[in-house]
Amino acid sequence: MSTPVAERIQAQIDANPVMLFMKGTADFPQCGFSARVVQILNHLGVPFKDENVLADPELRDGIKTFSDWPTIPQLYVKGEFVGGCDIVTEMAKSGELQTLFVENGIVSAPV
């Protein structure tokens, strides 16, 4: 059964090729893990939409249920859940994250 918050989350994921649910905003992250993911995305030149879960307690709880993932931040690319800070960091180090963005047409391959 779909809930109103789940429908809101899905609509944001559908509308934004790269969607980051985080604590704070991209301009003012309010936790180190969210700041790290923003830093990685900015370093890779990835345009993304951010949503501050601290501004909406229903969203903060709802995103954890939606993804079946207990922590925030949460990154979605082209509708697929990628992971949180640890996974995003590891993927960035290995080059997997850049490949994911290139394969999905988010960024062009590095020159």
UniProtKB/TrEMBL annotation:
Provide an example Pfam family for this protein.
Glutaredoxin
Could you name the domain of life of the organism this protein comes from? Bacteria
Species of origin reads Acetobacter nitrogenifigens DSM 23921 = NBRC 105050
Annotated Glutaredoxin domain residues = 18-82
**Membership in a protein family:** Belongs to the glutaredoxin family. Monothiol subfamily.
Keywords, A to Z? Answer: 2Fe-2S, Iron, Iron-sulfur, Metal-binding, Redox-active center
Q: What is this protein called?
A: Glutaredoxin
GO molecular function per UniProt: 2 iron, 2 sulfur cluster binding; disulfide oxidoreductase activity; metal ion binding
Q: Which residues bind [2Fe-2S] cluster?
A: C31
